[in-house]
Amino acid sequence: MVKTFIQSASNARVKEIRKLRDRKNAKSSPLFYMEGSRIVGEAIACGDVIETLVVAPELIRNDFARGLIADAQRANIEIWELSAPAFESVSIKDHPQGIAALGRKRTYEFSDLNADGGIFLALNAVADPGNLGTIIRTADAVDCRGIILIGDSANPYDPNAVRASMGAIFSGKIVKSSYDEFLIWRNRYDIKLIGTSDSAEKDYLEIEIPNPVIIMMGSEREGLTERQLTDCDDVARIPMLRSSDSLNLAVATGVMIYQAYNMQRGYRLRK
Amino acid sequence: MVKTFIQSASNARVKEIRKLRDRKNAKSSPLFYMEGSRIVGEAIACGDVIETLVVAPELIRNDFARGLIADAQRANIEIWELSAPAFESVSIKDHPQGIAALGRKRTYEFSDLNADGGIFLALNAVADPGNLGTIIRTADAVDCRGIILIGDSANPYDPNAVRASMGAIFSGKIVKSSYDEFLIWRNRYDIKLIGTSDSAEKDYLEIEIPNPVIIMMGSEREGLTERQLTDCDDVARIPMLRSSDSLNLAVATGVMIYQAYNMQRGYRLRK
């Protein structure tokens, strides 16, 4: 285990971390930045995620974070010990708590997905990293077998997405794909594709959800494209009253994938 | 209709707006700050919300925002026209679009709630304004008759809450209350109180949800207190697989209140 002490905010390694703030760099880098004891703790517990632990002992105020440093040392994880000013220069928090990490991204292909059963989630061009992380967290709770990010998606390793995922990013199988590639995979395994739209005729409770199934959700602003809606075997509408014309994407996705999960665990509708 | 031109970021009115950034001031002020053409448009459409429209014509890039200024003029709303630097000094956005507003908060008491029917939502010490706004948006979609904020709650008029509510904040009946006051109201009308906990025995689908009903959700970190759980007529568990031990609060609330809404519109899921 190597411990490196870094005093200056202009140190080359510190600069490398700061570069990950740029959205383009964050997308293309094989590494991602996470900050805060809770998410770092999840990453250490998962094993095989953290490349480097980044700490500023002067800023650390709680024993949980100190315990994490000891855990990382036992796990032979490399540690960079930064001065408070150096840490503050990389921090994305208003009140840095002195613990962060660089993780290695995991990439999955369609061939990594087992299409035999379960719920798959396809997201078309989701824009907001916080929404995406929250969706990854919910998908984990229903044992989602794969999340397909179609088109120009937010980066699931954006620090806000990682934080919102509460660690589910470390175990979820996330595949980036064009819509055409996605369709080829779905057609090969003939998995029922259910989309959502607020102008769909069928109430989401009236749709038979088989096993396996793909639930496809549109982007925050545009929803699904006309072509995507046409390709769906069924399109579900989540009913809304009063002046509402849409739900938050993470909430709508939660309602839909819990309905899929409920059907797959044997619940059926009675009116 | 009065139009006031303000050049300097140190103008007294501009300072008043900036003061609303401070959480304490934002909570105690009868006014709240909102920014962006979408939310300002919702507020103008609602009528009787906006006290002052705050614009920076130099920064405005889209016709929708220009149309809103015309709408506000027709509605006799006072307009402050700021220089770009003055607007940037109050803006909460990275790329200000030049349109914002000061709104008048609405306050409701328990006596404003009609306890005859529908869904009520009680939130114990919700901490995150974005979660709160998202919940207010979802509650609107199921025609929630009242949202009770118990204890030390995030400010529903925090700019992030207002934005996440997508305008639902302007029509929702939100009551701030201590837990004891809330219990007195609930006992007076004898409304069934359903809480949630990840260690509850009953699956949320197995709980009979009557009309009216109160769904009570705990804070992000602590959930409901022991006392609150004891006071509930039923406590529901949203099942979670894999390593998940909780859902995002806005997602969990969405799943619960859609279940209540589905039951109230006559749907039952049975095994």
Notable traits:
60s Ribosomal Protein L30, Chain: A, 10 helices, 13 strands, homodimer, 5-stranded mixed beta sheet, 271 residues, 7-stranded parallel beta sheet, Alpha/beta knot
Biggest interface between chains? A-B, 39 and 39 residues
Q: Which class of secondary structure composition applies to the elements of chain A?
A: alpha/beta
Determine the mean pLDDT of chain A: 94
Give the strand line-up of the largest sheet of chain A.
8-7-6-11-9-12-10
Sheet of most strands of chain A: 7 strands, parallel
Tally of contiguous helical segments of chain A: 10
Q: Report the strand count of chain A.
A: 13
The unreliable regions of chain A are none
Oligomeric state, counting identical vs distinct chains: homodimer
Shape, per Cα inertia axes of chain A:
elongated
CATH class of the largest domain in chain A: Alpha Beta
Beta-strand portion of chain A reads 15-25%
CATH topology call of the largest domain in chain A:
Alpha/beta knot
Could you tell me how far the N terminus lies from the C terminus of chain A, measured between alpha carbons in angstroms? Answer: 62 Å
> What's the SSE pattern of chain A?
EHHEHEHEHEEHEHEHEEEHEHE
